[in-house]
Amino acid sequence: MNDDRLVVVITGANRGIGKAITRQLLLQNDKPLIVYLTARNVDRGQKAFDELRREQLRNASDIKMQNELRFHQLDVSNHESIHAFIAYLTLMHGEFSIDVLINNAGGVVKKLQDMCNADTAYQTVHMNYFTAVSMTTLALPHMREHGRVIFMVTALAHLGIFCGDLPRVLTSDDLSLNGLNIIENGFISSVGKGTYAGYGFPPMPFNVAKAGLIAYARILARSTIDDSRGLLFAAVCPGYVKTDMTGAFAPLTPDQGAETPVYIALTDNKRLRRHNGGLWKRLKPIKW
Ligand SMILES: NC(=O)c1ccc[n+]([C@@H]2O[C@H](COP(=O)([O-])OP(=O)(O)OC[C@H]3O[C@@H](n4cnc5c(N)ncnc54)[C@H](OP(=O)(O)O)[C@@H]3O)[C@@H](O)[C@H]2O)c1
Predict the structure, then answer these.
(1) Mean pLDDT, residues 141-159
(2) Whose CA is nearest to atom 19 of ligand 1?
């Protein structure tokens, strides 16, 4: 049977902004979708799946039911788990199986004010940067025509937090993924040695990791320019959102935080293409 529904994958979708993105995609009427809610923990993922499925049934109309929710285990820090999920998608939807990948999984290791030591730097950069790079690298060959990849970042990871040569290097058209990985690993090791400031890094592992993803979106847009599939990449700041990551003082709801990634996932290609690889906040491209 020919199924022309778009396949959307959300990582870390069992709670917080990822769950809100999944809910909004499931309940929208613009485009028929198959929405993959993925989570590293099967029980937590299944619980979120059941909850959203009940919500979809409560809101049921013929149009809304055109969207289908599916659950699959996915731990983005585990290569075997990523491979297993991609193999499953390929089996279900063919070699080119993904229309939209939303790299949402991430977070902070400790409270942000606990700041910077070697262990926090290692864990935070791996949890936010290297996991999304692994997921995207393995998913990229399976993206469909006009496929898009979204990275959840923060506008607080702006270039002004870096000193010396780093802003120039991070925005250089010559920067490769390999070079970017060296920068992120360099941050981790320089925190261990206490020399990070001398290299121009701030003592902020979360922001350094997210800046890496902003740079990565730019690299991907540049390096796939001749790819006939016309792929799109976007780094998205959700704003300061009340979730387990932030706590009670954040002003936005997860649904508000989900608005821009959902917009990028669904908006017509032509409106986004001009800003391929760019940084977005509140439905608009912003300066890095
Ligand atoms: N909240 C904000 O104000 C804010 C601001 C800027 C950027 N962001 C970014 O937006 C994204 C969502 O944030 P949030 O506030 O919704 O965070 P959250 O409530 O802490 O949720 C994080 C989600 O990521 C999942 N996760 C973490 N590591 C994972 C892994 N290895 N594999 C699969 N899933 C994993 C968690 O799963 P478990 O339940 O299993 O732990 C959870 O579902 C994150 O990337 C965050 O950095 C958030």
Answers:
(1) 98
(2) 16
